[in-house]
């Protein structure tokens, strides 16, 4: 038997994203039957599938596995709610509508940029806090 908690998270994320089971199966390279078994908890998710699911829904694998309640898995334990609001504002100001050479970035490139900006934000925040 596979992890029912993981199965529930996948179903919830899929429904939140208004993605059909068939569409998620297609994006994972699975048939609908395999996807149904994953969501019912009767089939285990491979490491590659877990990574791909985390990318599709923009959550960490730790979140999917229940190791954290933080969906993106990048927020340090010392971060305050104000820090999180500041990060959101920072990303909105710096990551939206980015282009390179006059062309828009792909979804994957945008995700990579956001991860880099998040890392930079938390590094700077930690430096700022250590100076207090």
TrEMBL record:
The keyword Transcription regulation does not apply. One of its GO terms (molecular function) is DNA binding. Keywords: DNA-binding. CDD domains: HTH_XRE (cd00093). Residues 10-64 form the HTH cro/C1-type domain. The keyword Nucleus does not apply. It holds the Pfam family HTH_3. This is Transcriptional regulator. It comes from Secundilactobacillus collinoides (Lactobacillus collinoides). The lineage of its organism: Bacteria, Bacillati, Bacillota, Bacilli, Lactobacillales.
